[in-house]
């Protein structure tokens, strides 16, 4: 274990090698630290896939996306954001040019980014297996991909164990940066707490105070976390919960849950399900006449539900999203991103693509600023509170729990006559500053492990 | 304790869903009973039925045509698959049969994904299914779901008549009991196998058409359904048509009634009952001894 590496990973040398080189420099050796401080300032020990993963001309990024299963439509969007980010990091784009550290292009720290993609099948086990393979075989320096928070929590735990950085690009459970937080895990996207804090005032103003609400909840970390965030945020307005229906991912028939909700005396129904489950349960709720009996709300809308549900369901409904393409009016980089994405994939990007894209850009920026791929240094750069200009405006991480600080758009579904063209389904009501929405650290349950913790 | 009205509505809901499960499972069980292997592609066939509904309803808005097309397309698919692939596996070990139908399932799902993508497709109930039925003021139920009970019952009845009141059905049932003896009697077992596979696939396809307006239509939609159908078949008894119907209703009621008390236990309840059946009556409620 005598391997050490110098600052920029142009090549790896052993400790003995450094000594030899030092002697080779001869009498001038003493001056070396002064004349080329960047190169000789630091040597880093082995950690995780470092330095093995940076010895060649390229570095490897792993993408674990649900390409099949109930969340497949989100995962496929996410994957495209990943591919576009890597293309932009390698070849440059208007987005990377706007980030000072990435201006020079040509990959990250002069190394081309190569990548592998695996299908998590919307389950944690296949995600962890594929990620382990990417780490052990390909010496991945970074991982991303989730959609399901259960996968995000499993992957960040793997990242902590294997000492490889993980970016939870699309994961909303508070636990991801709460009780399950990891030193090697970072989540840029707003969490459930932030979404609910942003949504509650708008929705309470529209629907009123002191209402009874029923909840259809996906039975895993995301669903239960969203439930607690919703009830907490709406308690301020006197709303109470009268029914919590836990349904597993991939439920085929939500009828029995809907019957309970219809009988609960609720005035509002929150549908928390995701992806195909969101479509199935909403369709069934509509057929049950739930929308005539009570207000139907999808607090966090999945992409691609617009077509199967239509403005009949979504029109007029207040929702939140982690990102919306229409934010391009406020953030010019989003416009570049939308155009580049549309050109490559021929559709308007959704938030999964945007979050994955952004996560990769933020990772690359941190590596450039750290001047090394050595994980603890990259983590320090990410924890520094440095603000990066991105397609979601200025973003940064809270050091204590690695929760990203990024704006939360509150939107309203457009009615049929308001929709003009592809993906024009929401109007932006406001873009709430993420900083003001964040859960206080004392409440979020994160006990951040140190770098060495397994 | 849930109210009487809620329990009644859940019981009715369980019955409605149970009918659909019964239709799906009856196909699975007769294929198993006759051909002797578990058709892992059954969920994919169900999914294909839903996609046929999507295509036909989008262009013609005719539900009856969608049902017919679902049956025809799945029949054609079944003929091609049985003749072109599965018949070579009848004499192979069970693990080969399992792998081939599983592989087939993956290929069918990915083929649909290639054609239609992963996004959910829009399928609405027919116009005559729009509306809500009031059950004596006790509970309300979507009209289409009530009609689904009728449609599945009609298909199950047709299947019953085919199996129990035709000479063809007699051969199929005899084949389920003793394949060797049937072939010794000079009946063309190959033809019978093909026919059974077609019937099973059509049952799955029709169930898919019926379920499409109730669900997100995605390439993976059949997988959770297939798992529930397996539970139905195990509870009802492998190879038993009556068992599939009773099993379907049992699973439908379990899912529904458990939800009335505590939704978190709904899924677990069906596996618990399946385990109990396996322990107390391993051949299932209606399975014959020695059939496997």
Write a concise keyword list for the protein shown above.
heterodimer; A: 454 residues; alpha/beta; five-stranded parallel beta sheet; four-stranded parallel beta sheet; 18 helices; 41% helix; globular; B: 292 residues; mainly alpha; two-stranded antiparallel sheet; 2 strands
Question: What would you say this structure looks like, in words?
Answer:
- The complex is a heterodimer of chains A (454) and B (292).
- Chain A has 454 residues and is an alpha/beta fold.
- Chain A has helices at residues 15-25, 32-35, 37-40, 72-91, 94-97, 124-136, 149-162, 192-207, 221-235, 255-262, 275-287, 290-293, 306-314, 332-345, 351-370, 375-383, 434-437, 441-444, and strands at 3-6, 12-14, 43-44, 58-65, 112-119, 142-144, 165-167, 185-186, 212-218, 240-247, 268-271, 295-297, 318-320, 388-390, 393-397, 404-405, 408-413, 426-432.
- In chain A, 41% of the residues lie in helices and 18% in strands.
- In chain A, the strands form five sheets. Chain A has a five-stranded parallel sheet, sandwiched between helices. A four-stranded parallel sheet of chain A has the order 10-9-11-12, with helices on both faces. A three-stranded antiparallel sheet of chain A has the order 2-1-3.
- In chain A, helix 9 links the parallel strand 9 and strand 10.
- In chain A, helix 6 runs parallel beside helix 7 (149-162), helix 8 (192-207) crosses helix 9 and helix 15 (351-370) crosses helix 16.
- The longest helix of chain A is centred in the N-terminal third of the chain and has 20 residues, at 72-91.
- Residues 1-40 of chain A have low confidence and may be disordered.
- By secondary structure, chain B is mainly alpha-helical.
- A two-stranded antiparallel sheet of chain B has the order 1-2.
- The radius of gyration of chain B is 19 Å and the shape is globular.
- The chains are: A alpha/beta (454), B mainly alpha (292).
- Chain A binds chain B through residues 67-70, 72-73, 75-76, 219, 245-248, 250-253, 255-257, 259-260, 262-263, 275-280, 283-284, 287-289, 304-305, 307-308, 310, and chain B through 2-3, 5-6, 9-10, 13-14, 16-17, 109, 113, 117-122, 125, 132, 139-142, 144-145, 211, 213-221, 223-225, 228, 255-257, 259-260, 263-264, 266-267.
